[in-house]
Inverse folding.
């Protein structure tokens, strides 16, 4: 058996590193933490809490629609519910949970000790948390947004958007975009510059490739919605005229800017999931993923094509016919790189020896559910078909098949797969199988009938319907599916609770056939990740390593040092001192939060907020060298 | 080399700081320049998009933007670029005095940009709430102004660190990255200024 990278390290080294890298004890120490694993876990837990809230909103909507002319909720609350559901799932759950998995796993998978900018990482998390809490505070106080998650103007504008509902929505979006862009920069720089020696780009795990592509997509997509939502906020607060047709503004400008972000957003959610799928399939079939270069190429092509599809959300607006044709072609074309990946996975399973454990079951669920969503996507890429089903339940069915199939199934598999690494405990297999089976059945029973409802003409976003439409039985069936999904989520929560109550039982690699570096360290990993950074000898770091793992020596143990390597070949370049834990990112996020929330009420908040934010930022960046640090000048800290 | 005797890689002799694309802060700066640059691009897209809704540009009844102050702003920005190139070179040769002078200069330039920006808002000759033209023109200026204000903060903080210390080798890299950002800040404005202040004259 080969030795692990951490297993060879002497106890004295591990002790010294622990002293340097561990968080301070107590609540303050917890709040000061800049450890990518702590921040990553908080992100995942927070995102999952929002997933539960978004799920509850969906459950109430399904109860309302279970039969004709129902009165569980009225039209106003229903409008808020579907807006909150979409906003929560897209902005507060899906993107954050995907970036969170990257922020936790990427440094481990590339053999580094932290992300590139740990304090900024903490700031990003707190900004996201504050944004989410702000949205839900508004909702529980009766000011939930009500114009849908894509907030079309003029419905969301000053003329029709009542109270502060859509202002709260716009600022929440800004918070989440700040967090998303920060996470993207963290991931890009960490992947580019912190890979362990030997992990050249062509040896990078597919998971890391998927995170890199996702991060670039976030970086290029999110500024669009950040500015778009500020235009909306300014139209509402300062009487700007961006979307006011009467003064030369344009409602379609909103749609273009929104969907130039909104469509890549789908791939921002989907592409990380492809990384989970490749990783899990490789582990559970015990073989290398077939066609690595094709897989990487497909990820990158998908990333580019994701930016060329946004107009297919706007086929029923006044788009020139040539434009419609182009976006139809582009929308159909994206099936090609996705198809390449599917065939590569099938080849991998075909040649491997699959073990049908829970994470792998979720991958099979992904195949079936996502293919249905992908095929209905090719259908709605066609303008005549889209014109018929636009704004009907067919679209609701399609987008849920794509997003649940393409992202939630892989994510759930990823939870089961990496849970032992996060917590040191294996989730129960029996409950896991129940979780999968109920979820698979529930999703199909809930969402497949919606295709038919859409074809029968049922529009989305209606709070009720009359019995004569004949939509009652299919709606009742969809509601039963939603109940099944809810039961599967409860099974998962029970599984997690039971597991966390038990003693830690996970070795370094409980699956025994994993190939990536996070499984070379203990479960959960120590604060410093690797006592000695590994030297990577092949594309599958743990399968290709020598009997005695070559390691990096010479990094200081009395300071938090990262090894910076070259972009292409990951050759050691220099040592980088990374900052200590501090409370200032939290305080800076609170100052930012206060400013943005006040901006809902007065534009002058920007002036006061600039000062409020500047103070913690100075404290955050002010140098506090430790004994032994090279000092050029000064020294009175 | 036999597999059992795989050698370790000793990195103790490697430097503890680096400049340019070797440093992670350079990549971080590039990342933020990309995101911030795109916010400016979105404002430009909005500016161009709403043009199609007007028979004339600027709209009838709206004065053309004045160009005296924008010309002065452009001149000052162009003047600042060699100063920051000099600062970058000083930082790369670890010249503390040069880096200090450079950061103070950048602070003075950044404040000057902000003062001139105040008058540039007035030079637009339109209000943000008048028409979509006014909103879009103001948006371009406001978006860029937030970067100017950030630069005043950045320059003054860096100057304070360099004078009050303690100064570590990595701070020279920070000064160098600040110069990179400066080229983005000023170069970007040249394009935006041409769009907002000068291009409306082409429509006359």
């Amino acid at each position: 058996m080969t030795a692990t990278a951490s297993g060879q390290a002497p106890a004295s080294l591990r002790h010294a590193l622990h002293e340097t890298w561990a968080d301070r004890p107590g609540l303050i120490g917890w709040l000061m933490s800049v450890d990518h694993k702590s921040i990553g876990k908080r992100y995942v837990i927070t995102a999952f809490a929002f997933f539960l809230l978004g799920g509850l909103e969906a459950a109430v909507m399904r109860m309302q629609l279970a039969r004709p002319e129902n009165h569980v909720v009225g039209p106003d609350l229903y409008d808020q519910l579907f807006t909150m559901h979409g906003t929560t799932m897209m902005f507060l759950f899906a993107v954050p949970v995907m970036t969170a998995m990257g922020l936790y796993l990427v440094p481990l998978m590339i053999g580094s000790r932290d992300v590139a900018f740990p304090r900024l990482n903490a700031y990003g998390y707190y900004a996201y948390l504050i944004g989410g809490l702000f949205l839900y505070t508004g909702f529980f106080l009766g000011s939930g947004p009500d114009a849908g998650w894509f907030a079309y103007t003029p419905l969301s504008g000053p003329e029709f958007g009542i109270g502060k509902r859509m202002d709260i929505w716009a600022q929440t979006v800004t918070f989440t975009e700040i967090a998303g862009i920060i996470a993207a920069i963290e991931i890009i720089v960490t992947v580019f510059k912190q890979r362990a020696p030997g992990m050249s780009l062509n040896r990078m795990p597919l998971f890391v490739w998927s995170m890199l592509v996702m991060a670039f997509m976030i970086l290029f997509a999110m500024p669009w919605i950040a500015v778009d939502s500020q235009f909306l906020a300014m139209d509402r607060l300062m009487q700007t005229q961006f979307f006011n047709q009467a003064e030369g503004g344009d409602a379609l400008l909103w749609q273009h800017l929104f969907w130039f972000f909104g469509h890549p957003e789908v791939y921002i959610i989907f592409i990380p999931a492809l990384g989970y799928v490749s990783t899990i399939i490789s582990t559970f079939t015990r073989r290398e993923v077939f066609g690595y270069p094709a897989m990487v190429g497909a990820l990158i092509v998908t990333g580019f094509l994701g930016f060329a599809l946004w107009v297919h959300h706007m086929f029923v607006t006044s788009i020139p016919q040539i434009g419609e044709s182009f976006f139809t072609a582009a929308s159909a074309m994206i099936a090609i790189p996705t198809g390449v990946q599917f065939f590569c996975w099938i080849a991998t399973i075909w040649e491997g020896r699959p073990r049908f454990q829970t994470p792998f079951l979720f991958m099979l669920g992904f195949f079936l559910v996502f293919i249905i969503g992908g095929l209905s996507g090719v259908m709605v890429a066609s303008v005549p078909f889209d014109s018929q089903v636009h704004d009907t339940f067919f679209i609701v069915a399609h987008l849920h098949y794509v997003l649940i199939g393409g992202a939630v199934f892989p994510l759930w598999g990823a939870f089961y797969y990496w849970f032992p690494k996060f917590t040191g405990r294996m989730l129960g297999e029996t409950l896991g199988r129940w979780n999968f089976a109920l979820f698979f059945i529930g999703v199909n029973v809930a969402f497949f009938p919606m295709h038919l409802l859409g074809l029968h003409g049922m529009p989305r976003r209606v709070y009720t319907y009359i019995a004569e439409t004949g939509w009652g039985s299919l709606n009742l069936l969809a509601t039963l599916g939603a109940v099944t999904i809810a039961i599967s989520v409860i099974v998962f929560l029970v599984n997690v609770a039971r597991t966390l109550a038990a003693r830690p039982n996970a070795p370094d690699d409980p699956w025994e056939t994993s190939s990536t570096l996070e499984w070379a360290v203990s479960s959960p990993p120590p604060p410093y990740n690797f006592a000695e950074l590994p030297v990577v000898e092949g594309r599958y770091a743990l399968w290709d390593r020598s009997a005695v793992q070559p390691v990096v020596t010479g990094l200081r143990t009395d300071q938090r040092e990262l090894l910076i390597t070259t972009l292409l070949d990951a050759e050691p370049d220099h040592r980088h001192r990374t900052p200590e834990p501090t409370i200032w990112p939290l305080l800076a996020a609170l100052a930012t939060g206060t400013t943005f929330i006040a901006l809902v009420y007065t534009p002058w908040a920007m002036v006061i907020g600039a000062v409020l934010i500047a103070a913690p930022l100075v404290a955050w960046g002010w140098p506090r060298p430790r004994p032994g640090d090279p000092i050029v000048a000064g020294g009175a800290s | 080399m036999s597999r059992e005797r795989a050698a370790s890689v000793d990195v103790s002799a490697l430097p503890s700081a680096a400049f340019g694309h070797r440093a992670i802060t350079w990549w971080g700066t590039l990342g933020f320049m990309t995101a911030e640059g795109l916010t400016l691009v979105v404002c430009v897209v909005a500016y161009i998009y709403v043009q199609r809704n007007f028979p004339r540009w600027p709209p009838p009844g709206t004065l053309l933007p004045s160009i005296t102050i924008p010309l002065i702003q452009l001149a000052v920005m162009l003047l600042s670029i060699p100063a920051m190139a000099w600062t970058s070179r000083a930082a790369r040769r670890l010249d503390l005095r040069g880096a200090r002078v450079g950061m103070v200069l950048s602070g003075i330039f950044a404040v000057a940009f902000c003062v001139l920006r105040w008058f540039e808002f007035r030079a637009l000759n339109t209000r943000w709430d008048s028409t979509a033209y006014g909103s879009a023109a103001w948006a371009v200026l406001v978006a860029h102004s937030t970067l100017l204000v950030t630069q005043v903060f950045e320059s003054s903080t860096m100057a304070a660190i360099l004078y009050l210390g303690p100064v570590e080798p990595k701070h020279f890299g920070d000064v160098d990255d600040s110069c990179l950002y400066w080229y983005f800040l000023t170069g970007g404005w040249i394009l935006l200024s041409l769009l907002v202040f000068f291009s409306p004259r082409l429509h006359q």
About this structure: The radius of gyration of chain B is 22 Å. The mean pLDDT of chain B is 93. Chain B is about 70% helix and 0% strand. Strands of chain B lie at 9-10.
